[in-house]
Amino acid sequence: MRGAPERLTGEGVPIRFDKLGVVIAVIAAYAAFAAPFATFRANRIVPGQARSMLEALPAATGPLLLAIVVVAALVALFKTPLLLRLAASAAALAALALLIGVAGTFLTPTGNTFARISPASGFWILIFAFTLLLADVLTRLELSPWARVGVLVVASAAVALLLISGSWNDLSILKEYANRADSFWAEGSKHVTLALGSLLAAVIIGLPLGILCHRVERLRASVLNVLNIIQTIPSIALFGLLIAPLGWVATHVPAAAALGIRGIGTAPAFVALFLYSLLPVVANTVVGLAGVPRAANDAARGMGMTDRQRLFGVEFPLAFPVILTGIRIVLVQNIGLATIAALIGGGGFGVFVFQGVGQTAMDLVLLGAVPTVALAFAAAIILDAVIEMTATRRREASPA
Amino acid sequence: MIEIEGITKRYDATAVVDDVSMVIEPRTIAVIVGTSGSGKTTLLRMINRLVEPTAGVIKLDGADNRSLPGYELRRSIGYAIQGHGLFPHRTVAQNIATVPVLLGWDKARIKARVDELMTLYQLDPEAFGPRYPHELSGGQQQRVGVARALAAEPNVLLMDEPFGALDPIIRTKAQEDLLTIQKRFGTTIILVTHDMEEAVHMGDKIAVMDAGKLVQYAKPAEILAKPASAFVETLVGASERPFRLLSLGRVRDAVEKGTAEGEAIPGDASQRDALAELLWSGRPALPVRDADGKPLGRVTLDGLVKRSARPA
User: Fold this and answer.
1) Which residue out of B47, B77, B87 would a mutagenesis test of the A interface target, given it has the greatest number of A Cβ atoms within 10 Å?
2) Which of A 286-305 lie inside 8 A of B, CB atoms?
């Protein structure tokens, strides 16, 4: 275990600690030696028993995983080459992902279909620590936007491969999934539809509203204030507030009822998410348009562009990266918020979360929470890449 | 010809431009000088109707500038501003092509015009055309800004402190380039500046503005010799007056008969440069040669000193 630092001093390189690496190493050491790796429960709702890394894995693999974690933590601790850090974090994450499945199979008594094995705090903390290391390395490598999306695709493919191969099938979260495979995908698509649909509606309404606020100064403060107030209403309260008006619409407008608009269900969830989305879209449109250089605007007018030509030819392209940042905020926010829609029958991954809370079945909560977090994370990475591409396209040198 | 007749712009009760009338002859450069807040920029912006006047008429070649929609009028008038106002998301070639594209020229004609202007401004179209404005130096950006203003071959070019952001050496070069191009295209230029040096150097006529009023509108020599008010006199700068007067004349116009020793000075240098050379080298006279090296005579310290005195 002391090989890494000795090799470094042997080459005459002074030992230097990596600031973030110290934190990662401390966290990893705690998780590997003091925290439980997996939890064993006789059935899905009884309290679990903790299993350490060595107890949870078959004979040779326990020490092997411990060794991988310790080496990776040491690589993180000292100032080491970026590629080495990349390899260490990827190897640690891959080993953890593979071996948690092995632990599931190993800890499940043969033929017992009631016992539940789930990852415990130690596993999650290790995943967190090495994801932090990986994220740090990827940031320091200054990857191009396409490369970052590529990393996301590779990581998603690896997870998909593990899921399809069945190596995680003995873990509790996948046992919950097996019981609800049909409704999982139905709620998933409802979740995505809700988040993306309300975003789309917010963009369709919010962009023109933002442009209007930019052009008409008197409107700006009042519109932004109203949207700000909406943003401060807690989501559950907003759902409640919407029940009465939407219920009224449903009983008095037959066409609305036919469209599925009711006091509870998808409609109020959609409206609430839409209202929350408006502020970031409108505010970023206003800020983006205000950031267009005065001289460029003056020149555009002075050369005879009409207001429309100036808007689409100059102001909008220049404000676009800022507007896109607003859309990114909305998308990530909506993917998370859509979980609450389940409270009023709006569907989505929140259904599993609230069922799980009701049944004190944490695995079911995770079945709703993990895909939500993964979706939000992926959306953030993809939109960040898009923002960077639109912002840098004009800065790229194009030598003749 | 641009006729400005009794033009006034009021914001609330304050008149920013107050009953200004002046005529700018075709193919000349009129420079509007004044301190900040004198209304010079507002006056300029009323010519292409970026600002609508409260009262008065502006005629371009006899036609009221309100006979066209504002945007169409502006497409026919070149417009260059301080800090160039280039579009950061468009390439140099796209920037220059802005007005021709708005006017719907065909692609071949636009490309030919862009290449012509870039060549004229010593920017290789192949190398600089596809670049973005931020990749150019300040001087290059300024040249692209003026090239863009000239792209649709306007008869009139409005310039609002176009050289304000340039360092002195590049500014002098940009001024020379503009004079050359003005002669070549015969463009009528109205240039706003707060720099009297620039005004005397560039202007066929100078308009001095103070608190919204046109104080004096005359040839540079007259502004120097007979300032209409104490304000104009301050603006001209009492200690600079004789040198500015000399800077208006060419050496060949001050040549006397005779010969002199030493390095010759070209006939088209300014008399101010000749005086500086005489003072610096401690000589009483300089030989003058024309562009072909043929001797024209000499220029003397006494002669120049007489010319720099207040004209009668």
Assistant:
1) B87
2) 293, 295-305
Q: pLDDT confidence of A398, banded at 50, 70, 90?
A: very low
DSSP three-state, residue A308: helix
Whole-number Å distance between alpha carbons of A291 and A315: 9
pLDDT at A5: 47
| Chain B residues 34-73 with CB within 8 Å of chain A | 48, 50, 71-73
Strands in B45-135 per DSSP E: 55-60, 63-64, 77-81
Q: How far is CA B149 from the centre of its chain?
A: 14
Question: In angstroms, what is the C-alpha Rg of chain A?
Answer: 26
Domain boundaries, given as residue ranges, for chain A: 3-142, 181-393
Q: Hey, what are A324's tokens?
A: 């896109």
Distance from CA of B147 to the nearest CA of A (A): 12
Tokens of A232: 């401060």
ipTM surpassing 0.90, yes or no? no
Q: Is A301 in contact with B134 (Cβ distance < 8 A)?
A: no
Which of A299, A309, A314 comes nearest B81 by C-beta?
A299
B246 touches chain A (CB under 8 A): no
A54, pLDDT greater than 80 = yes
- How far, in Å, CA of B273 to CA of B250, rounded? 9
**Segment A65-70 long-range contacts (CB within 8 Å, at least 24 positions apart):** A65/A95, A65/A96, A65/A99, A66/A32, A67/A1, A68/A92, A68/A95, A69/A28, A69/A32, A69/A95, A69/A96, A69/A126, A70/A1, A70/A32
Residues facing A348 on adjacent strands: none
Contact (CB, 8 A) for B262 and B287: yes
Q: Nearest chain A Cα to B84, which residue?
A: A295
The two structure tokens encoding residue B28: 């000349």
B298 at interface of A, judged by CB pairs closer than 8 A? no
Strand-pairing partners, residue B5, are: B57
Read off the pLDDT of residues B203-214 as tens digits, 9 standing for 90 and up.
999 999 999 999
Question: Which single residue is written with the structure tokens 């590779």?
Answer: A154
Contact A129, A72 (CB under 8 A): no
Rounded to whole angstroms, the maximal C-alpha distance in chain A is 83
β-strand B205-210 against B213-218: which pairing, if any?
antiparallel
Structural domains in chain B plus CATH codes: 2-237 (3.40.50.300), 244-307 (3.90.1280.20)
DSSP E strands: which ranges in chain B? 2-11, 14-24, 29-34, 55-60, 63-64, 77-81, 156-160, 188-193, 205-210, 213-218, 265-266, 285-289, 295-300
**Phi and psi, residue B209, nearest 5°:** -110, 140
Distance CA A48, CA B285 (A): 108
Looking at chain B, which residue has its C-alpha nearest residue A294?
B85
- Domain A181-393 in CATH 1.10.3720.10: yes
Min Cα–Cα distance to chain A from B149, Å: 8
Record the pTM.
Answer: 0.77
Burial B49-77, CB ≥16 within 10 A → b, else e: bbbebeebebbbeeeebeeeebbebbbbb
Q: Which residues of B touch A295 (CB under 8 A)?
A: 81-85
At A229-280, the pLDDT tens digits run: 988 888 888 888 888 888 888 888 877 777 777 777 788 888 889 999 999 9
Categorise residue A59: left if φ over 0, alpha if ψ from -120 to 50, beta otherwise.
Answer: alpha
How would you classify the pairing of strands B29-34 and B205-210? parallel
Question: Cβ(A121)–Cβ(A36) under 8 Å?
Answer: yes
Calculated CA dihedral for residues B273, B279, B284, B285, nearest 10 degrees: -20
Per-residue pLDDT tens over the stretch B113-150: 999 999 988 899 999 999 999 999 988 999 999 999 99
Q: In what order do the strands lie in the sheet with B285-289?
A: B265-266, B285-289, B295-300
